[in-house]
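Can anyone check this?
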Amino acid sequence: MSEPATLNVRVTAQGMTARYEYDLRVGSTVGDSPPLEMEYTVEVDPGLVKGCRDRIDAALTKAADAESRPQPGLAKELAKWGKLLYDHLFPRIQGNAAELVTRLHASTGPVLVRTNEQEVPWELLHDGRDFLGLSHDLGRRLVGKRAVVGGRSISRVGRALIVGDTIGDLPSAREEVAKVAAWLGGRGIDCKVLLGQEATLLDVVTELASDETPYDLFHFCGHVVTSDGTTGLMMHDRQLLGEVVLQTLSSGGAPPVAFINGCASAGGGEVASMCMSFMALGAKTVVGTRTEVADEGAWQFAAEFYGRLLAGEPAGAGVRAARAALRERPDAAWASFILYGDPAVGITKDETTESPQLPEPHDEDLMIALAPDARQLMQRVYESAADRGGVASVDLLQGLLGEADIRQRIEGSIGADAMEALDQVIDQVLRPPSRADGDSGSDDDSAADDDSGTDDDGSSTGTGTGLGGVLSDTVNRVFTEAATRVVADGRSTITTADITAAFVAVGGGVSARLLELCGVPLARLLPDESTSDPVTSDPITPGQDTLEDDPPPLPRAPASPNGDERLPMDDLSRSAVGIVRLANLLADGRGEVISTYTLLLAFGAMGSEVLRRGMHEQGTTGERAFRQLSGMLTPRRRDLSPRVHDVLDQARRRSAAGRTSSGRVGEAAILLALLEDEESSARELMRKLGIDPEQLIQALGRAH
């Protein structure tokens, strides 16, 4: 493990200039040798520092205001001011600063900037290669004269207090609260949400000061302001939760982890002050913003950071990874977040935070409570899924079909016989696979395994054939969507109608395919669904095979003159076959037949070289159009399960170690990472097809 480094920076004013005294200390793990110590002194122009900082803040504010509109040249502008500031603070001609720069470059581990200067955007200094906040696990510790409470360490995050939109003028903050609460709650964390009039100064302080059940995490999104010389988080009654009020926590300390997304803050000064106040009261890891951050960017950063932290990574690595994940966003959200605290500090990985898990239906302290009807629904779902150790989308679908109004609506649409067939199909999927008499599995078992032991996207969430005591990704997304809808409507409880609407909105996972097979469009679950929607798939009978040796047939219109035989493809090239099959999947996901639009979209998604050359003949317009077409189906990070993220990361590391001539990650690298994961459902699928995964790994290794 790389040695941690501390860059001490002391700034003293000297008339028109300022003196920056640097002391870089790198801990040594060899014998009893002391840390390396050497002092460097540089004369700096405060006006130039302020000018660069203001230009950076202005660029970030403009990007946040523009939200989804791309900002041409934004990255170059940030790099320009960051490089100018870096060269001024670490000049090569003054004293021995060049040696300091060399040693800083050589430090590959976490770097703690310990300083009395909070205005310098240390994270955005650019050394000519990259920003420091992206090349190092960087944290800040501000030096002051205030007393500091020791605080407490934690081995896991068990409870979280989430406060936002305290005066009711920030709907985006209210939405962030819903998403954060649902995300954390889905990972087994007990969340308390205070919104609007519930977030009074007294109530928030009372929660934070609780000795019986102290909070491990505090998340705030709202106004951070300064009034009459007092800086604080604005509560519902426009009173400020500032340093003086926080002294109430001195006996027990502040939550070890704090995240402060300060809306409408000016240059980050107020947020920085509040971050210092939380650290003085014992917080170990505090994340704040230097400028206002776009809504979606703030939520995505929080999710990336929390995910890394809960997985056991140090805070610095979590913040750095979140920056990297959001680097391509047009709102430049990655560049606004600052970590206060030791970047090497983290929490111990705990089983309750490894996998998504929603609080049990009978819990009394749900972040957003379940209404009585939804509570009864989820109780049935949990009881039904108990044998499998978790809940998949098919479990939730079965529970929804048990609701009298939904069942009556669907049965009236497709008839009692088709409804009975649907029930039998679901029972078959949820039934544990039979392995009697040494049977190694057959086509009849394949349907039963589709949603057992895997997320709805196909990644394994547990061991064996069970769900490992977790909710699938689709079910987690359902509750996140339902919570977002509830908060947006100003309500505090999730009803069965909310769960149903959210289930339809997120696509239903593999359950949508089961419904389509039985002639039921997913939206039929909703009460206002028209009965005139076309049926794009024929109903199937119970026990019909769903896993065949050949790819699934192309979707067909009921009146197609071509019949339902498979499309002849022997005369198509390998690349053309891949394009047509991708078009099939795209159309099938929409419940449509393949249209010319879908077929062209598949050409772009596959990066057709023929199409690229043809479009590039039309100059920059054609090049731009091809990039847009080829990127339309590129998934977002949230579309991938954590296991798939791990597979891609492993493939990138493998390719980097192998130093491929193209510098790109190839199919073999991804397949190897996919199959080497012993808990991946991909291995089980190969076994179902009669393929030995280990032999395949060896063959792919030779090809790689």
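Reply from J.R.: I decoded it. The chain has 26 helices and 15 strands.
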